[in-house]
Write the structure tokens for this entry.
Amino acid sequence: MAKDSGGGRRVVADNRKARHNYTIEDTLEAGIQLLGTEVKSLRTHTANIRESYAEVKDGEMWLVNAHISEYSHGNRENHEPRRPRKLLLHKREIARLAGAIQRQGMTIVPLSIYFNERGRAKVTLGLARGKKLHDKREAAKSRDWERQKGRLMRQKG
């Protein structure tokens, strides 16, 4: 029951609240270093990235607080659900993201985890700036107006 979002991508976990709580400035794709039981668990769609974020530690990018449930048929070698997972990026990309975090007060949030056409697990990361309450209200107001405008145009013909 995988969602296919075109191009052979099977989305496993989606962070829909991220676009509500943050203004996404830039997105990029990163590989993720997983254990065997984590991959099997992801294929059964048992992941949650709602409260997770990415951070730079010792020149490496880590996905923190992402929950991938234990594999149901795993043995004593099963993984820990909320362990930090290494993200696979080029050093230039890590340096650029680290600079944006330090200089501009931004954060890196995962937007989705998916399997690409080659069966590799990937993470879409968003370089984001937190929204204030009035920004969220303004976005909701403009979204409602666009919806209402579309209804009026359909009614008028």
Observations:
- Residues 14 and 124 are 10 Å apart (CA to CA).
